[in-house]
Design brief:
261 residues, alpha/beta, three-stranded antiparallel sheet, 46% helix
Length: 261
């Protein structure tokens, strides 16, 4: 089996039960990692705690745990403008339709997981006063044990996500918190851009992928496996939706912040 992306519900269920993932190279997205490690405050979507830049992740072994805690405390005491100034940044503005969102650190999140430094999540969260630390450690250990890697939300996926989200909200009922539906679209967009199958328990998302993106959906052990063949083409519905995307909507991904601090 080749690459496969697991959605949030799937990875949460597998890690809780301690079951191994499907064979092959298994990934999650940085959006899923945000939910997995409680990186966003429910309701507002604001950062729940500080995460280190790419540079600090790369050289994490140069400091012991005590030094890391002191560093995290220092950054946690600063304002978000200072803390996040060297992290990649995503801004999504939906005019008067939905509250705007600002997200930072997708590339750092992916690097933490890909370099098997998941211990940074509960450490940073602990300084930030969050709970669920034992659960976070367990999830980090699970990713490490099975070598599950992470694909970041990048500019190409963001560009694809805007028309996808516009088509989705015009067809299906939104979840209570619209950000949950948007996160589903971000995950789908990353998987489609990588042409990697997405394993999901969300039937609505699977139906949308088939009807609008022209993806192939098959049953995989009771879940939907969304496949994106190399030559897959969007349906006429999706092409028409792209023509009429709300002009007040925009998504901007600033990937120039390379985390050199």
């Amino acid at each position: 089996m080749s690459e496969m992306v697991l959605d949030t519900q799937e990875i949460v269920s597998l890690s809780r039960k301690g079951k191994p993932p499907p064979g092959g190279d298994v990934f999650i997205t940085s959006t899923t990692a945000q939910e997995l490690f409680f990186l966003r405050v429910k309701g507002s979507g604001k950062p729940a705690y500080w995460i280190p830049t790419l540079h600090k992740v790369r050289h994490a072994e140069l400091m012991d745990r005590k030094e890391w805690r002191l560093l995290v405390k220092e950054y946690a005491s600063r304002g978000s403008a200072y803390r996040d100034r060297h992290l990649d940044r995503l801004v999504a503005d939906f005019g008067r339709d939905y509250p705007p969102i600002v997200e930072t650190g997708h590339t750092s999140i992916a690097r933490i997981i890909n370099e098997r430094k998941g211990w940074l999540f509960p450490m940073c969260a602990d300084v930030g006063g969050l709970k669920f630390l034992r659960e976070m450690r367990s999830r980090a250990d699970y990713l490490d044990e099975y070598g599950i890697r992470c694909k970041p939300l990048n500019g190409k996926a963001v560009n694809s996500a805007l028309p996808m989200f516009h088509a989705f909200v015009g067809t299906y009922a939104m979840k209570l918190d619209y950000r949950n539906s948007l996160n589903d679209i971000f995950i789908l967009s990353v998987a489609s851009n990588w042409r990697a199958p997405l394993l999901t328990r969300d039937r609505l998302l699977a139906n949308f992928s088939k009807n609008y993106l022209g993806a192939e959906v098959e049953d995989f052990q009771g879940r939907g496996k969304i496949n994106f063949p190399e030559n897959f083409r969007e349906t006429q519905k999706m092409r028409e939706s792209k023509m009429y995307v709300n002009k007040n909507w925009r998504m901007i991904a600033d990937l120039k912040r390379r985390g050199l601090d």
